[in-house]
Specification:
Elements (H helix, E strand, L loop, with lengths): L3 H11 L1 H12 L11 H13 L4 E6 L13 E8 L2 E11 L18 E2 L2 E3 L3 H21 L4 E9 L10 H6 L10 E4 L7 E6 L1 E10 L14 H22 L15 E9 L15 E10 L5 H18 L4 E10 L2 E2 L5 H14 L4 E5 L5 H6 L6 E3 L14 E3 H19 L4
Parallel strand pairs: 3-6, 3-7, 7-15, 8-14
Antiparallel strand pairs: 1-2, 2-6, 4-5, 5-16, 8-13, 9-11, 9-12, 10-11
Helix pairs in contact: 1-4, 1-10, 2-4, 4-10, 6-7, 8-10
Length: 425
């Protein structure tokens, strides 16, 4: 009697070149966000391929979401294949958008260059290599058995790099990521091929503006410098808030270890008037704006995180003559973490042991990804991230994905999906 796992692995090994070519084809769609280029063509490419393999394909336009317009429509593709008998639905979700290529590249970022056992290109790691591996995994799984129970789904979604509101968030609001339609979700984010990512820290982006009074630069005593007021905010952060954040540590298995503490990045500061060609404006700045990027732990509350910043600003208003400020929320996501003993985490971990021959590491991501919407909006807890790619390479020049990692991750995903379909996880 033939070994079904051996057959499954042989089918994936035989598709190695096809996996590489599929990754290259996906990279060649310059799905840069912002503004959201080529979403439609990339989604249709994925949909056409899966439709040819017996999947029913839906294209969902996230009309009215941020950035959506006639030139840059937010197009998502969801492909679904019903099995021959009832069972769980296993969904593989990958975002098709990529960040801008930027400078520093030694290769064409959208050519999909193959070199030294790697595929190079913007999105190769994050996360078109993962989407390609998931497609090959599912296709091999279908070919390995005449009959399969349950349902397989694959989606290619928009805007993860800008919050996911034109992608998974929009779909989750409409039931695409909720029971009973879906039971288990694997997101092939680049978190290393022997890791199971069960969640991520939270985030709060906010804008702080300090207000002053304009005057001639030669007579600053007649004005009130908003930049100096912002300096007082930064000084307060340095002396009081940053030491508190450094002292907090989470039980979440966040990698790298430095991210197991609360962090805050000062993303930008803008103050004063625009400068003319070669000359500064001879004006006391009447406003200064700073954007903060606060990452929070599962042990912290969003209300507490916001409250300690507001409390600091309120004390400055009491202590510092003329200090006035405004605080505006830009974006927030609460931390999320699924059960490492849940079906999808357990089946993926077992598959890593089988394929890689070593115990997997359970981790959480320092940044957010679309699990936040599947959990918080779709109310579906059995979701993890697992895929090829090295996290540190995401968004970097000369981004790449290792071909052997894609092959191994395809085997892991196929094996995990089979276990979930048969209810063996």
């Amino acid at each position: 009697m033939s070994d079904p796992t051996k057959l499954l692995f042989e089918l994936i090994d035989a598709r190695r070149d096809e996996l590489v070519e599929l990754t290259r084809e996906l990279i060649r769609f310059p799905t840069v966000n912002p503004p959201g280029e080529a979403y439609g063509p990339c989604a249709r490419f994925i949909g056409d391929r899966l439709n040819a393999r017996g999947f029913h394909v839906d294209y969902v336009h996230a009309a009215g979401t941020p950035g959506d317009d006639e030139r840059h429509p937010r197009i998502n593709v969801i492909a679904r294949r019903e099995g021959t008998s009832p069972g769980s639905c296993v969904h593989f979700n990958g975002h098709i958008d990529v960040v801008q290529s930027g400078g520093g590249w030694t290769l064409d970022p959208f050519a999909g260059v193959v070199k030294d056992g790697k595929v190079y290109g913007r999105g190769a790691c994050d996360m078109k290599g993962g989407i390609a591996a998931a497609i090959i995994a599912v296709e091999a799984l279908i070919d390995s058995a005449a009959e399969l129970p349950g349902t397989l789904e694959i989606s290619g979604t928009a805007d993860e790099e800008s919050g996911g509101f034109g992608g998974v968030h929009y779909l989750a609001e409409r039931g695409w990521f909720s029971a009973p339609r879906v039971d288990h979700v694997i997101i092939p984010e680049p978190l290393n091929v022997d890791r199971v990512c069960i969640g991520h820290r939270g985030v709060w982006w906010a804008e702080i503006t300090t207000h002053g009074r304009m005057a001639h630069g030669s007579m600053p005593f007649l004005g009130d410098c908003a930049v100096r007021h912002m300096h007082a905010v930064v000084d307060k952060f340095e002396r009081e808030l940053y030491p508190k954040l450094a002292a907090r540590q989470t039980d979440m298995p966040v990698v790298p270890s430095g991210a197991r503490r609360s962090t805050m990045n000062l993303s930008s500061i803008h103050g004063g008037q625009s400068e003319g060609p070669g000359y500064p404006a001879a004006l006391v700045p009447d406003s200064c704006r700073m954007v903060i990027d606060r990452r929070l732990l599962i042990e912290e509350s969003m209300e507490g995180v916001k409250g300690e910043v507001r409390e600091l600003l309120e004390r400055l208003a009491e202590e510092r003559p003329g200090f006035r400020y405004s605080l505006r929320d830009l974006f927030e996501v609460r931390p999320t973490m699924s059960d490492r003993n849940g079906p999808v985490a357990r089946s993926t971990a077992a598959a890593i042991r089988r394929v890689m021959g070593r115990a997997p590491e359970f981790i959480c991501s320092p940044g957010t990804y679309d699990q936040k919407h599947i959990d918080r909006v779709g109310k579906l807890r059995d979701c993890i991230a697992y895929g090829p790619g090295i996290l540190d390479l995401a968004h970097q020049p000369d981004e790449y994905v290792v071909i052997e990692d894609m092959v191994n991750s395809a085997k892991v995903m196929a094996l995990a999906a089979r276990s979930l379909l048969y209810g063996r996880a």
